[in-house]
Amino acid sequence: MNVPIEEWAAAVPPRHSRRRFTGEPVTDGQAEALRTHCESFEPFPGARAVFVEQPAGDVFRGLVGSYGKIRGAPSILAFVADVEVPDHAAKLGYTAEAAVLEATRLALATCWVAGSFDRRLTASVVGLEAGERVFGVSPVGTAVPEKAGSERTVARLARSHVRKPLPEIAPGIDRGGWPMWAFEGVRLARLAPSAVNRQPWRFRMDDLGCVLATDAAGGDRGISKRLDCGIAMLHFELGALVTGGLGGWEFLEPPDVARYRLSPTTEEVPADGRP
What we know:
Radius of gyration: 18 Å
Distance between the termini: 28 Å
Shape: globular
Oligomer: single chain
Largest sheet: 4 strands, antiparallel
Number of strands: 7
């Protein structure tokens, strides 16, 4: 993966969703970097992120009522997938989160939105091919210096900073025996954003690698859990790579999503098992 691995991994913990922006346009350098990233980073056919510097109209219709509406964002990222491609939701989650982390690396604020946005308007400014659909968007810009009361309210309602314990999403990880690359992968995956902060990812080790699956709680609520898990896939891979766990993903049948397998030449380092 020819990307700034360490910088993206470092961007994961401090990144939080922001809904209020100053309206200041992104700089020419930031715009060019995001545009170049989106055009060059397509690890999976059928999934892409598109940077729109000046969208023609407000694609955001409001989140959780008017107090959650995104305001003042000068640019957007649009997340597009071909619904005919196998595993398109997970592939798009991975691809889209890479664009979000690249924006974060460029000192820009973002907010994953997969529900309340104008899909028709977004599709018109992006330009869709046959079979493609817009699954989500993110505002992009400079956030206001401090969160307004409405932003704090939305975060509190969504409990967006509350994370499930590591042993809940990866049973047995607290008892030791997991290799360091998998331990660090789960640690970063735990911080991934998800719809209504449901955190539907579950991890387990098998003889071939580390398997990511969806949980069994509830339904998708209109937003695929596999999309959320695609986001977690990228976070996991970044955690694995920064600890020397060079490998790749293979997609699996539901409820499993994918398995991360090490390259044959990678040496495994045991973790200390700390939760």
